[in-house]
Predict the structure.
Amino acid sequence: MLFRSQVAQYTHIVIAFAVSYTWSPGKNICSETCEIATPPVCNNSPQPELLQKWKNDGKKIILSFGGAGMGGSWAGDANDCWDYCFGREAQVVSRLTEIVDEMGLDGVEIDYEYFYENNQSGSGFSKGAEAQKFLKEVTVGLRNANPVGFELTHAPMEPDMEPGSAYFELLKEISGTLDFLMPQYYNGYVYPYSNFPSALDHYNDLTNILFGGDASKIVFGFCIGDCGNFNLDGYQASEVMEKLTEEYPCNGGAFFWVVNDDTNGQWSKPLKEQLIANSMVCSNDVNENNVVTSSPVAVVTSLPTAAPRSEEHTSELQSRQYLVCRLL
């Protein structure tokens, strides 16, 4: 059950996922023409009244496009539905914009966890140029097709955001189109709680190379329960954010996977308290243009169909999970 008091702790709710497949054991059934379905919100239904309640409460609601079920770059994953979307960039932009308009949402998150370079990790993947063109043109297309106030972000896995990787370099080229970036510090090699200096090095690269030193553009990603040794409790996550604030007082806040695991909001409560403290620090740090920025409190991923984040990235959840969406 998703309690209203729980949702009150969040600034954004991300509805995951808009996809172009039908779930199937072993390998999802891809739409060969990249037809993207309008995603359910909860209980396998649209829930327009719930969306309106969230909006009335001041929440930004973002549509997540992609996720692991579209295809992953880790060993053992058979899904390749992204392949059928390459070359259909205008269609994808039009359809995602249509879904956002239909549902009255505030923006799009691109959750791309698939290959983007030829023979990446010895995979034999041969569509690197097509993948990079897709990511670039869909991002720029969404920015150009939507009005002022439309929020646009990517949620890449941490290893894909290493300087020199094709994904990193293309986002560097078009970073001005993004409102913020949501790196997953639970899908790679960096353990931010036990090895914060390594996470900070990575975060430094994103801040300085992609956004010219503006850390408010980067929302730090945590995992509650699906990610093996990457899982952190709310107090551990708040410690990470406290350390990050010492380096970057005006950082972009935090997001987490996934709302089902934030039982009664207990995980996010200590994190919210820390982020509020972060914002107080930031409010005293006025930049050279006399603009005061502050951290978001939290970004939460809502879950109509879930793909777990295992440490080895080898399994797909063989069932469908839905939020119970009655707000109390």
